[in-house]
Specification:
By secondary structure, this protein is of the alpha+beta class. It has a domain of 224 residues: Roll (Dipeptide-binding Protein, domain 3), CATH 3.10.105.10. 27% of the residues lie in helices and 23% in strands. The strands form seven sheets. It has a five-stranded mixed β-sheet, with helices on both faces. Helix 7 runs antiparallel to helix 9 and helix 14 packs antiparallel against helix 15. The chain starts with a strand and ends in a 16-residue tail after the last strand. 48% of the residues are buried. InterPro entries: CntA-like, Peptide/Ni-bd, SBP_5, SBP_5_dom.
Length: 519
């Protein structure tokens, strides 16, 4: 087995994963989430919830704290042909929770199921790079690539789409007859909109969870979750935006609870559409960059629970320590930039115009997300002070996702994905209209070159070339004004005081329920 340190990101992250609730040896842990867990197909996306997919399904290799890959369903791996293929030795004696053996044939059937639906996974370069998989024997698999691809092992560690369901439940169309994996939990019951019940997988090959049941109540908003925690209906709150900053601070001063913040995990930002009027004007994008008071957003809206961000990726991610800095907040300079570009305030008016067209943008957010709404209102106020009108559009998450894909936005909230996605996988997805990034960049004259260089950086075997290409890409995007970084995301955990703290998961999407226990 070769352990290979891959990322410096998140090294030494001592987060507190929600502690065990009412379940030191057996018992039930009660949690909450805004929506139901979904059908839990490991190869697909929404409405499948990532925290739940990670509970049922396991990868060949696992990303752990400190930027290291460690064994999961594979115990060892070796690169062949200069990184054009990998051979994996599979863990022996593992069975899916329906009793089906986990073996090389199971790996091949899952890989083929993903490849039959390649267009669904256009955001992830690994899927485009996979040529196929073959079973060398019952416990050995070769994964063939079309060419060298340096992040291959990192992307095999992702929660989706390359995890493994029992071949007995795989259907030709890519759906499942039931959610069956090798992980420490099984889905026992779903009542849509009410709860999901997970039970311990008693035949799990590794350390079994302390709790024998996890009940996840569907609570749509932060206030409902806070009330449920106070009344004892749930045992913990955990996640990036599962609780608002004011409530988190209140819990932090209440001796009945323990409230903990993780170090930075990813970037909270606004994507700015370069292909749509009026943000197709670079002067408007630069005025937005200098006219929004980032420090005030962090201080007043986020209540200091997230550090301010100036760049698309934090500098502790690979290839991102470039010394870039955001334009300083300067309302007068932003207004002067708009004046110089011909955007004038009409007599007695509040919104600038040029050639008879008002300087107004659609600022889009998820309406049920109280934090996005509060940030949007603060941004609207800042933009108004420099003569930019912002129409607030709050919609359900599905509609908001559709706007990201279609480009029907002026500004829209988004996040980078954190380890182990950043920067490579997040940037790889910029080349397809699966998120806001493609549309935000589409109006840039450099777009074709950006896409070409992203493809090149993911496949080059020359480290010096990779470093220089990332420098060009990140510097170009930074200067373009198509992103307004707000803050670096943290996970927030609030637990009852009688629960033992355990580390957060290695990524923002994995919640280590299996390690939760009573103090």
């Amino acid at each position: 087995m070769r352990r290979r340190p891959l990322l410096a990101a998140l090294s030494g992250v001592p987060f507190l994963a929600p502690a065990a609730a009412k379940a030191s040896q057996g018992g039930t842990l009660t949690f909450s989430w805004p929506v139901s867990a979904g059908p839990l197909n490991p190869h697909l996306y929404n409405p499948n919830q990532m925290y739940a997919q990670a509970m049922l399904y396991e990868p060949l290799v696992r990303y752990v704290e400190g930027g290291t890959l460690e064994p999961a369903l594979a115990t060892a791996w070796e690169a062949e042909r200069g990184g054009r293929s990998f051979v994996f030795q599979l863990r022996q004696g593992v069975r899916f929770s329906d009793g089906t053996p986990f073996d090389a044939a199971a790996v091949v059937s899952n890989v083929e199921a993903v490849l039959r639906n390649r267009p669904r996974h256009a955001w992830l370069e690994l899927i485009a790079q996979i040529d196929g998989a073959e079973a060398l024997d019952g416990g050995t698999v070769r994964l063939r690539l079309k060419g060298p691809y340096y992040p291959a092992l990192l992307e095999l560690a992702l929660i989706r789409p390359m995890r493994f369901a029992s071949p007995a439940v795989l259907r030709p169309d890519g759906s499942l007859s039931a959610p069956v994996g090798t992980g420490p939990w099984r889905l026992a019951e779903t009542v849509r909109g009410a709860h999901d019940l997970f039970v311990r997988n008693e035949d799990y090959w590794g350390d079994k969870p302390a709790a024998n049941r996890l009940l996840v109540r569907v609570l749509a908003d932060s206030n409902s979750r806070a009330l449920a925690l106070e009344t004892g209906e749930i045992d913990l709150i955990y996640g990036t935006d599962q609780i608002d900053a004011d409530t988190f601070r209140r819990f932090a001063t209440d001796r009945r609870f323990t409230a903990t913040l993780s170090p930075p995990l990813a970037t909270r930002m606004l994507a700015v559409n370069s292909a749509r009027f009026p943000t197709d004007d670079s002067a408007v994008r630069q005025a937005i960059a200098g006219g929004i008071d980032r420090a005030a957003l962090v201080r007043h809206v986020l209540q200091g629970t997230e550090p301010a961000a100036e760049t698309l990726f934090a500098e502790n991610f690979p290839y991102c320590r470039l010394g870039l800095r955001a334009p300083a907040f300067d309302r007068a300079a932003a207004a002067a930039r708009l004046d110089a570009a011909g955007w004038r305030l009409p007599a007695g008016g509040r919104v600038r115009a040029r050639d008879g067209r008002p300087l107004s943008v659609d600022l889009c957010f998820v309406g049920a997300d109280a934090l996005q709404k509060a940030l949007a209102e603060a941004v609207q106020g800042d933009l108004a002070r420099i003569g930019i009108g912002a129409r607030l559009i709050g919609e359900d998450a599905g509609t908001s996702d559709g706007r990201q894909r279609s480009g029907d936005f002026g500004l829209i909230f988004g996040n980078t994905w954190g380890a182990p996605y950043d920067p490579h996988a997040f940037m790889g997805s910029m080349r397809a209209p699966s998120h806001a990034d493609f549309q935000a960049q589409r109006g840039l004259t450099e777009k074709a070159e950006i896409d070409r260089r992203i493809g090149a950086v993911l496949t080059t075997t020359d480290e010096a070339e990779r470093v220089e290409t990332y420098r060009w890409l990140l510097t170009t995007l930074h200067a373009s004004g198509v992103y307004f970084p707000i803050s670096y995301l943290t996970n927030k955990a609030v637990q009852r005081a009688d629960l033992a703290p355990v580390p957060f998961g290695a990524t923002r999407y994995e919640i280590p329920f299996d390690r939760m226990r009573r103090a």
